[in-house]
Design a protein that fits this description.
This protein is mainly alpha-helical. The chain is built from six helices and two strands; from the N terminus they run H-E-H-H-E-H-H-H. The protein has a two-stranded parallel ribbon. It is globular, with a radius of gyration of 15 Å. The protein binds a DNA duplex through residues 5, 7, 9, 17-18, 35-37, 40, 45-57, 64, 67-71, 74-78, 82-83, 86, 132.
DNA sequence: CTTTTGACGCGTA
DNA sequence: CTACGCGCCAAAA
């Protein structure tokens, strides 16, 4: 089909940036969480882009619920409220939220893909998310 | 082509 | 703790 408005940003393996992002998120194991910034560093883009990709997500094979913000909280949606489903899904896989609605990134923060995976997928290492302050 | 719109992060005050 | 600014940038309008 000869369109000119479709996504044309591809890497060497023919994947769009969003597809690469989804590929990274799929590596996060159950019971662990990554941050938007962490995924961004891994794919080499800005943190907000990860949020856009999650918002645009239509596939069901991507564990989007495991991506939290740098505070270890569920980011608010455009409407202003948190997604209660995200918290349910994480709770169901054993991720504990404290009274302030935060998870302990030091305890459940994902360490990222191993070097081989990063290499094969043209990604970069990123620091494990940690509790700030 | 331009403008708008965000599931972000971090420094500062 | 809250509030604000600004860099970031793909996608849709």
């Amino acid at each position: 089909m000869s369109t000119h408005t479709e996504d044309t940003r591809r890497d060497d393996s023919g994947r769009s940036l969003y597809e690469r992002i989804y590929g990274v998120v799929q590596q996060i194991p159950p019971g662990r969480v990554a941050t938007y910034g962490q995924v961004a560093t891994i794919v080499g883009s800005g943190a907000r882009t990860i949020g856009y990709a999650m918002a645009a997500l239509r596939r069901r094979d991507v564990p989007w619920q495991r991506v939290l913000n740098s505070e270890g909280r569920i980011s608010r949606r455009a409407h202003g409220a948190e997604d209660s489903r995200q918290r349910e899904l994480l709770t169901a896989e054993g991720v504990f939220f404290d009274r302030r609605g935060r998870v302990d990134l030091d305890a459940v923060g994902w360490e990222g893909p191993d070097m081989d995976w990063l290499d094969e997928n043209d990604c970069f290492p990123a620091p494990r998310p940690a509790t700030r302050r």
